[in-house]
């Protein structure tokens, strides 16, 4: 079986064809980095318009790459949230039209479920239940991934997401947009001990995250720049963020049930320092460590197609109704207790 996956929740327009045996038959991504760079961040209306202009030809090209037509596809899966609502609607409406025209099932995918299951696309041996650190532009959570559609949130951020902290640090250092990869690159030339930065919530009982105070400290470090370079600030920031991530994830691990592996996913999972730190943490607990290849960490349609495939292959599969709505917010664990100040 083959699923067509569509992603348009932020600033990547993407389509992919994913087969049951985990082969990605074709995939295309049109990044809007150039479109949003002058604004220093994603402008929702401009993103929605760019998705609308690019998506249909991108899907056609992806099908052509694989030498397929819609008739060869078994289901159409698209991100239905959470994300920038205009962009999500562009992708979801296209998926509805394609599903209706070809009489194939529609699968409305939670973008976070796409990230959460992406490691299973890359690694067939990764079995449920696993402990997931989801670190992206909008989220920073630790979840028990108990099975398809079964998520228990153990920790979340009380203010900024980790990717957001990387992006804001990049902005403060004038590295432009998008920021994460630029901060990582600059940090390689810096000394992480040069700038003293706080580690918010380090050692606290609850496993939650906080990065707002770290970002403010980076701002002060830049404004009152002393005997250190921007590279030193980047390295010190990345080290402080890593220390927080490791300490908080370690705490969440203590609260988790028996897990098959420690897994990281989402855009920040592309960061080599974060990957290396988590690998050590997993080894401490005698757990395998799984991180998807870099291209599967940041937004892509293969992970959306794969989440759709997992749904399609499940014994109780039911297609989503063609009038299903796009959702700007859509928590993976709707039962998670609210945390003060936290987003979903
Ligand atoms: P969400 O998935 O929460 O809706 P999103 O889709 O915008 O948010 P992703 O595409 O998953 O987020 O990840 C993008 C984020 O990852 C950005 O904040 C970006 O700076 C960060 N990021 C990407 N590569 C790296 C890297 N090498 N190091 C650190 N951060 C990175
Ligand atoms: Mg992006
Ligand atoms: Fe994402």
TrEMBL record:
Assigned protein family: Belongs to the KAE1 / TsaD family.
Cofactor binding description: Binds 1 Fe(2+) ion per subunit.
Lineage of source species: Bacteria, Pseudomonadati, Pseudomonadota, Alphaproteobacteria, Sphingomonadales
Species for this entry: Novosphingobium aquae
Protein purpose: Required for the formation of a threonylcarbamoyl group on adenosine at position 37 (t(6)A37) in tRNAs that read codons beginning with adenine. Is involved in the transfer of the threonylcarbamoyl moiety of threonylcarbamoyl-AMP (TC-AMP) to the N6 group of A37, together with TsaE and TsaB. TsaD likely plays a direct catalytic role in this reaction.
Transferase among keywords: yes
Listed name of the protein: tRNA N6-adenosine threonylcarbamoyltransferase
Residues binding Fe cation, per UniProt: 111, 115, 299
Domain Gcp-like: 23-306
């Amino acid at each position: 079986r083959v699923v067509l996956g569509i992603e348009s929740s932020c600033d990547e327009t993407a389509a992919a064809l994913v087969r049951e045996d985990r082969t990605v038959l074709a995939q295309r991504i049109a990044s809007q980095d150039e479109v949003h760079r002058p604004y220093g961040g994603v402008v929702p209306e401009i993103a929605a318009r760019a998705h609308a202009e690019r998506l249909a030809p991108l899907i056609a090209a992806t099908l052509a790459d694989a030498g397929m037509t819609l008739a060869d596809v078994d289901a159409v899966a698209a991100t239905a949230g959470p994300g920038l609502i205009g962009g999500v609607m562009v992708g979801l409406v296209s998926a509805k039209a394609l599903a209706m025209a070809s009489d194939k099932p529609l699968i409305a995918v939670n973008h976070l479920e796409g990230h959460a299951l992406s490691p299973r696309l890359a690694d067939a041996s990764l079995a449920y239940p696993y402990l997931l650190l989801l670190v992206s532009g909008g989220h920073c959570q630790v979840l028990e991934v108990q099975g398809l559609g079964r998520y228990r949130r153990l920790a979340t951020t009380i203010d900024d997401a980790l990717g957001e902290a990387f992006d804001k640090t990049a902005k403060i250092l004038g590295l432009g947009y998008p920021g994460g990869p630029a901060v990582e690159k600059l940090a390689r030339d810096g000394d992480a001990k040069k700038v003293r930065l706080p580690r918010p919530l380090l050692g606290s009982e609850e496993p939650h995250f906080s990065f707002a105070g770290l970002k403010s400290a980076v701002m002060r470090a830049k404004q009152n720049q002393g005997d250190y370079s921007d590279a030193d600030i980047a390295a010190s920031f990345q080290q402080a963020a890593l220390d927080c991530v490791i300490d908080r994830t370690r705490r969440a691990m203590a609260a988790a049930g028996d897990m098959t592996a420690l897994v990281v996913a989402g855009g920040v999972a592309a960061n080599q320092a974060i990957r290396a730190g988590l690998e050590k943490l997993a080894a401490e607990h005698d757990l395998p460590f799984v991180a998807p290849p870099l291209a599967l960490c940041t937004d892509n349609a293969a992970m959306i197609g794969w989440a759709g495939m997992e749904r399609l292959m499940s014994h109780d599969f039911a297609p989503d109704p063609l009038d299903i709505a796009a959702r700007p917010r859509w928590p993976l664990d709707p039962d998670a207790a609210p945390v003060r100040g936290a987003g979903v």
